[in-house]
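re: the backbone from monday

yeah here it is again, tokenized this time
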């Protein structure tokens, strides 16, 4: 190989010097502070530049004065000054930077070069997956390649990658997130469910991104109604892609439920010609709203495995740049990997879905059936331990929400009254909220009155205790 054939990795030494010079000239300017928020020391190609930047960023975190003398003193005290070129090099870098006005442009050039180097590294790893002999199947190799591609995408969008990083850099990332929360940046706060009373309970964190949100209930309790409510809310109100994987219901039927729910029109208008033209028109208009919104995706592939959900979710993340919710209806209809017991097989799925939530920085909503043994209890309100086929759910999920309708067990009871029991919330408080379900739509109710009514009904259902043992 000749010298002409050798290719240097993407880099811009001049841009790196200009970033450092701008910091030494005017570290407190808004432009330089913005650079500190997204540029990491690992993004510098020159090791000596990375050393200098790590020092000034740490000094900025501690609100210390940054100029040529203070930086040189700090580097001399920690033994890094000479390896970074000494005082003379710091002075030269500052002298060759006439102004910090263009520091953002310099910093973005440094970041772009770092991303390109990272992409080359990941591309080489992709080639190794296929060239090197291994026990992986072709499908597993392709899944691994997708994961590597997602790492490139994350690096491109956020400038960050996985692996061990100093706490000082994590602290800077956290500060940026907190600033976003306080300024109501949608990207920095959690998601809502679409049920006001539940969202009020989850405030101020809401449903934290990167979380697994499990909904458990017996049949006919309204799991799918909650599922579609959350999907529609994510698409319309959050303005984020909602990916609905429906293993139980065909996609046309699910779409019909969503249209009925969004329009609050009984779905019977879609079956009886001339039943109510006004309501049909209203439903059609709301259906068009969902279609034109472009944030709702439906996959009704039967018996799909976890790998399918992961691959499709990653595809939408690459295409759209963000995913709001991944919704799966429901766990035990998924194709599980071979394992000694069902609970172990489905436990692998819940772990995988939790990892997917973290990878895509989204919320994964998982519906699950509950054991029928709970119906033998006097109090049939569900608990996380009632989850069918897996005890792993309690360990993996961040939220566990049970659904209870007394009308499902008593035909004389109010069929609309519904309780949503947030039994587990790793990010805040738990509790019960009340709503009405009618024709596949969730309606808000007065929480104080509904709670009082529920407590009175529960008290009446308890067997009375008589004195004397009779």
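seq for it, each position gets an aa:
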């Amino acid at each position: 190989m000749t010298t002409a054939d050798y290719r240097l990795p993407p880099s811009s030494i001049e841009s790196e010097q200009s970033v450092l010079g701008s910091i030494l000239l005017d570290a407190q300017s808004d432009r330089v502070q913005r650079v500190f928020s997204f540029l990491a020391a690992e993004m510098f190609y020159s090791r000596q530049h990375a050393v200098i930047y790590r020092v000034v960023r740490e000094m900025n975190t501690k609100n210390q004065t940054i100029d040529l003398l203070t930086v040189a003193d700090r580097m001399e005290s920690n033994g890094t000054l000479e390896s970074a070129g000494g005082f003379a090099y710091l002075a030269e870098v500052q002298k060759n930077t006439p102004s910090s006005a263009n520091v953002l442009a310099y910093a973005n050039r440094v970041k772009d070069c770092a991303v390109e180097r990272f992409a080359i590294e990941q591309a080489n790893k992709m080639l190794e997956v296929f060239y090197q002999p291994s026990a992986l199947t072709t499908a597993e190799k392709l899944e691994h390649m997708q994961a590597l591609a997602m790492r490139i995408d994350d690096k491109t969008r956020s400038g960050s990658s996985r692996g061990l990083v100093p706490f000082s850099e994590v602290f800077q990332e956290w500060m940026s997130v907190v600033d976003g929360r306080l300024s109501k940046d949608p990207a920095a706060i959690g998601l809502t469910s679409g049920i006001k009373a539940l969202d009020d309970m989850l405030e101020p964190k809401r449903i934290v991104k990167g979380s697994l949100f499990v909904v458990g209930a017996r049949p006919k309790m309204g799991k799918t109604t909650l599922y579609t409510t959350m999907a529609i809310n994510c698409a319309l109100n959050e303005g984020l892609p909602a990916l609905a994987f429906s293993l139980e219901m065909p996609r046309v039927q699910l779409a019909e439920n969503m249209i009925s729910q969004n329009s609050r029109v009984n779905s019977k208008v879609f079956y009886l010609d001339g039943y109510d033209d006004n309501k049909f028109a209203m439903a059609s208009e709301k259906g068009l709203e969902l279609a034109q919104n472009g944030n709702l995706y439906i996959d009704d592939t039967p018996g799909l495995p976890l790998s399918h959900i992961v691959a499709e979710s990653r595809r939408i993340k690459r295409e759209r740049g963000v995913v709001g919710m991944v919704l799966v209806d429901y766990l035990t209809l998924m194709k599980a990997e071979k394992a000694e017991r069902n609970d172990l097989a489905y436990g692998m799925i819940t772990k995988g879905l939790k990892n997917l939530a973290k990878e895509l920085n989204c919320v994964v909503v998982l519906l699950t059936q509950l054991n029928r043994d709970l119906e033998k209890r006097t109090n049939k309100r569900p608990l996380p331990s009632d989850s069918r086929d897996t005890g792993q759910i309690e360990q993996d999920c961040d939220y566990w929400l049970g659904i209870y309708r007394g009308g499902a067990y008593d035909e004389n009871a109010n069929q609309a009254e519904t309780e949503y029991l947030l039994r587990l919330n790793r990010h805040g408080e738990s509790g019960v909220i009340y709503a009405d379900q009618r024709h596949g739509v969730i309606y808000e109710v007065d929480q104080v009155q509904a709670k009082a009514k529920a407590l009175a009904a529960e008290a009446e259902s308890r067997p009375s205790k008589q004195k004397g043992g009779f």
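The longest strand covers residues 417-425. Residues 103-131 form the longest helix (29 residues).
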